Each structure stands twice: as structure tokens, then as C-alpha cells.
Amino acid sequence: MPDSPRRPLTAAQRGIWFGQQLAPDSPAYNTADVVEIRGELDTALLVESIYTCLTETEGLRAVFGVGEEPWQETGPLPVVRVLDLSTEADPRATAAKLLAEDLATPVRLDAGPLTAQFVLRVGPAEHWWWQRAHHIAVDGFSCALLLRRVAELHTAQAEGREPAPALTSVTAALSVDAAYANSPQRVADREFWLAELTDAPAPVSLSTMDFNVGAGLALRLAIPVPADLADALKATATRLSRTWPELAIAAVAGLTARRLGVDEVRIGLPVLARSAAADMRIAGTLMNIVPLRLPTPPGVSLAALAESVADQLRRTRPHHRYRHEDLRRDTGGAGLFGPVVNVLPFATTLRFGAAEALARNVSAGPVEDLCVAFRQQRDGLWLELDAHPERYTAAELTALQEELLTLLSHSAAEPKTPLRPAAGPGAWRLDSPAAPPLYPLAEVFTHDLGTIAVIEGDREWTYGQLWAGICGVAEALRHRGIRRGDLVAVDLPRGGSAVITFLGVLQAGAAYLPLDPAAPPARRQAVLADAKPALVLTAPDVAALAPAPARAPWCPAPHDLAYVIYTSGTTGTPKGVAIEHGALSAFLGAAASRYRITARDRVLQFAPLHFDASVEEVYLALGAGARLVVRTEGVESVAALLAECAAAGITVLDLPTGYWHELAYAVCAGELSLPPSVRLVIIGGEAAAPEWVRRWRTSVPGVALVNSYGPTETTVVATTAVLSGPA
């Protein structure tokens, strides 16, 4: 072929070229799509159509070099490989392995080829067409253009008609790029973005790991969004006079804010950066990523965030062509955004003659941190998470994916419900939606990680240590295969480690089953046989767990299981009572309003952990930022207990009514004194004797006495009454 002229690189290509030079052996810039074609296919015609498209698209045949500046020239046509794998034992598995190996192949920009094209026969009437291309040649929009172009060339010839005009490529992209580079619009765009980012807080990441430019392919997790959820999301958008992509972007921002407790999230948004109609036919790399500043104060809802997204899109749209690489340099080289949100609302519909086809993206190129994509396919809406492989694990992506779907489900039903609790510590309130159990604890952690949370004898845990331990348990459980909805039995004595383990199970998205360490072996085996937990955690298991970096609290659905507690069996065979998160949150909201626990309180953890009274003690104390003081094992007598309460400055006692009867007798008879720190005594489990209530009112009038009642099935407490003291 004749010598090709050397041409410069577009602004977008320059950024990619320099990035590849920093990691020449990395395949991170590979993009790829697989097109599954079902039906009778003229394979020779498909191959001919691919070659025609490659001939038209100079960018896919480019090779690169460098003199004073990087340059590109047109190289030879790549070879289209045709393989018949239909005779293999598992044709699809063989094809998938071949394509995975190809995707992991680094591209030499100075030699090429920039693309690989495979046509694979995997069944009697089933073919896969594979297109892998380096990001320096095409962006995501162009990949879809190329798929449609090949389908159009194939179908037009099969139908005996002229195909649509060819796509444009490198020459057109360079022309568009040069016109913008020398325009007053670029100057105005630069000024806009510098003003936009003035005094902006640093962007945040959902990862705590550092970025390494030399990493390989992005870690991807893709699942279909349930059809009813996708429909609900679109219906909610219509009801709010918004678009569903605006709600999707808002949901990711809201999740990020909720996880990190920040009042602003800066999302990265991929944009076409094609302003003219002719630009929409350029097969090249022009797409850009722009930062969107979104306010996420406590109390913000999906509806409010979507309105902010729409406003930011209106404001920034005229300035989307200013390259993010240039803006990063302009602002001192710092990161411009946290998670990237890519919404692709239109399915790529393809037909090859009479054969129908489904295109699936396999790789979208490099990811510095995290990219959340909502991709409309012919078979429904898909949620794709692409993550930097050294910053996220597959378990973290699974948890993030589940949390995002849950958030979307809740918010689609109630779009004006706060995504973040409207208050800090003590956020459980009856006058606002009940928060999931871990939320207030996480809010306390973000407010003051040095505050003492749990005291057990001489040992103390701060809220920071508590949350790190909770996240460590959750991380370990995910690595052991525990998933949302699983049941984990916990065989630990009362204490701080047990509290951390219970909450860590919830943070993993699972539910816990507290076992009685002192139970007879027969009862224990009966409980385990009936409950069938996915895992049993014992003291050695928990002792081996390490703390983990802080993560946002798990967002359960109302019907997700929280815990299972077995009844005592006094009226028959012990039975497991399953309590869902919605019921637990509702109880905690009511109890917080009734008992008014605050960060100044010290709450005694008296009840055995396999009794649901412990739920009241643990969650109310920690959710309010109070101190939870664990009763010392072996302290049974009233005198010893009151001495321990006095030494610890206990303000809230939660006691079985029978035990309170003994305490009331000793206090009302003048044998013992209630510590002056105590302000509230909660009793329950059986009826309180009227005589001791009357004497209590006379002896300790300034201490509130609240009688509570409720079987385990009603989530700890169903009703309360103030018997004495302040209401």
C-alpha cells in the first residue's frame, strides 16, 4: 500500500498514548464487545463486511510513533480470524477462554494491530463475533457505531441494496479537535470549569487503597436489574418529571455520600463531546469525562439529588468538550472526580440478514477507581461495576452492587425518603423514617471515632475500633462466601467481641443466630439442626479476625432477615423467631423515642445475648453514641450488681421483672441504695407487683420506671407504660 501520511493525535488520544507509555505491558486500554448471533448466517459475508468496515475506519489500522510529538499513520488491515468451535466438548466455554486470553493481550501502539476480530461458530446456528479494540482508536460510542456499521454492510448486501454512507474516522476527528483547540469556546470552557471547582472539596472514593497506574484489566461485575425494579425506576422518574438516568446518577451519589458521610459528592460523567450532527458518525476517540458537583447533606433524598443532577447537567452541558486531562493539569494534577457513572439508555440492536444478534460489552477500558454503568440491553437493563483491580475486591463489588439495588428499590418506592439520616447520633426517631440498625452507629463513628463505645471489665473499645472490627468481621464473612440473606450462628459469651460479631454479620448483609454457650448439648444441636445456619462462628474464629478499613453501613431491605432468636421452650418446643430489618428498625425508632437514650448515657448490658432484651440494650446504646457497659460474668447478687453500676456510672438499667423485684425490695427497705447516676430502669418479662411499684414511687421518685411487654415474635417489645418517675 502507498505510504500513509503521519498525522498528529487528538487531545483524547494524547492522554491515552501517554497513559500506555507509563504501563506498556498493561492491557487496561483494551475495549471489547461480543455479538451473539443466532440464526442462519452467511459467515463469508460477515467477514467481508468486517474487512470493509476496517478499510473505511483508518483509526483501527493506526500505528503510533514519536518524534518531537507523538504521531500516527495508517497501517495494514488486521486479519479476521474464523474458527469453528462447534465440535468442542463445550464450545461456549472454549470460546470464552479464547476471548479472555485475547482481551488480556497488551497492544503495542508502535506495531499494532489495534484491533482483533474473531468470528466463532459455537453451535449449529450460533456464532460469536468478537471485536477487541484499543481505546486510543475508538471510544465506547464508536464501538457501538462499528457494530452497527458491520451489521448494516452485511444486511444491505444480503438484501441487495446500497448500504448507508461510510463512517468517518481519523481525519474528521482531527479536524473537529483542531477547530475546538483554537476557538474562543475552549477558553470560555476552561474558565467555566476553573470557577466551578474553586473551593470544591476533594473528590472521595469508596476504596481506601492507593492507585497504581500499571494495573491490568478492570475487575467487572455485571448483573441484570430485576425487571420490576427497572420499571419502577422509570415510573418514578416520570412521576418526578425527571429522566431515569438522572435518578440512576443520583442513586450512586447518594450511596457514596451515605457510605462516607460526606456532604458533597463529585461524580465523573462520561459525555460524547460531539456537538455537531456530523460528529455523531466519527468512529474515533472523542468522549470526555466531566465532574458533577452534587450536594449530599444529611436528609437528602433521591428526588432532591436527581433535581441537582438535572441542574448540573443543564449548567455544564455547553462546556463538556474541555478535556478532563487538561482540567486536571489546570488544577494541579489532583483527581477530578470519585466514582464514574455511565448511563447507556439505548440498546444496540443488530441484525445480520435474517439472523438476530445481541451485543454485550465485555470491557470498557481503564478505570482509575470505580465506574458504575447502567446499560440498556435488548434483554433488559444491566448494572455493571468496573473497578480498579488493586482498589476493590470481587466481594466488595458484590456488596456494593447489592446495596445499590436495595437503595434503588427503596427510593423508587419512596423517592423523598432521606438517603442519609437527617440527624447524627441518635438518629432513630418516630418522626422520620426508621433507619437501618447500623446507620446511627456509622454516624457516631464519623462524628467522633475516639469516643468510648463498649466497656467490658478493664477492656474498652472506641467507636472507631468498634466500626473497624465490624467491618473486619463483614469482610471475612464475605470472603468465606456469606451473602445477603444467609444465617450465621454466633457462639460467644456476652461481651464486646460478641457485639462486634453480631453487627459484623449484619454489615455483611446476613442475619445472626445467637447461641447460648451454656446450653445443654442436646438443645444446642436441636437449634442448629432446625436453623441450618450457613456458618457457625466460635471464639477462636472471631479471635483470628482482623479489623478492616471503614465501610458505609449495609443498607438492608425491610424484609431482609436481621436475626433469629429461639424461645426458651417453657410452653413447648423451642422455636426460632425470625425478625426482619423493617421490624427491627421500627422497634428501635419507637424505643429511642420512648427511652430518650443520649450520648451521655451509660447503658448496662445485662441480658444474655440469646434473649432479645439484649437487642434493646445494644442497639439503643450504640445508636445514640452512648457507652455500653457489659455486666461482669458471675455478678448475680443485687448488692454486687449495684456496686458495679455505681462504679461504672450506669444511667440506664434494663432488667427482668423478677430481678427488679429483688432490687426494689433491697432499695425500698433501705438495705441498698440505687446509684445516683441511674435515671431510667426498664423492666419486662412478667407482671410487676403493684406493691413494689407503689413503694418504688415513694423511695426513688426521681428515677423513671418503665414497664415493657412483648413476646419475641413482636420484636422485643410491643407496649410500654411509665410506672413511676419522669414520663
Question: Can you describe this structure?
Answer:
This protein has 727 residues and is an alpha/beta fold. It has 3 domains: 11-172, Chloramphenicol Acetyltransferase (2-Layer Sandwich); 193-349 and 362-413, Nonribosomal peptide synthetase, condensation domain (Chloramphenicol Acetyltransferase, 2-Layer Sandwich), CATH 3.30.559.30; 438-724, 3-Layer(aba) Sandwich (Rossmann fold). Helices cover 37% and strands 22% of the residues. It is built from 21 helices and 27 strands. The strands form 8 sheets. Strands 4-5-6-1-12-11 form a 6-stranded mixed β-sheet, with helices on both faces. Helix 2 packs across helix 4, helix 7 crosses helix 11 and helix 20 packs across helix 21. The chain is elongated. Residues 422-434 have low confidence and may be disordered.
Give a topology summary.
Blueprint: H1 11-22, E1 30-38, H2 43-56, E2 62-66, E3 70-74, E4 80-84, H3 91-103, E5 115-123, E6 126-134, H4 140-159, H5 170-181, H6 184-196, E7 219-224, H7 227-239, H8 244-260, E8 264-271, E9 288-295, H9 302-316, H10 324-330, E10 340-344, E11 349-352, E12 355-364, E13 370-377, E14 380-387, H11 394-413, H12 438-447, E15 452-456, E16 459-462, H13 463-479, E17 487-491, H14 496-507, E18 511-514, H15 521-531, E19 535-538, H16 539-543, E20 561-566, E21 576-580, H17 581-595, E22 602-605, H18 613-623, E23 627-630, H19 638-648, E24 652-656, H20 657-668, E25 680-684, H21 690-699, E26 704-709, E27 719-724
Parallel strand pairs: 4-5, 10-13, 15-23, 17-18, 17-19, 22-23, 24-25, 25-26
Antiparallel strand pairs: 1-6, 1-12, 2-3, 5-6, 7-14, 8-9, 11-12, 13-14, 15-16, 20-21, 26-27
Helix pairs in contact: 2-4, 7-8, 7-11, 8-9, 8-11, 13-14, 20-21
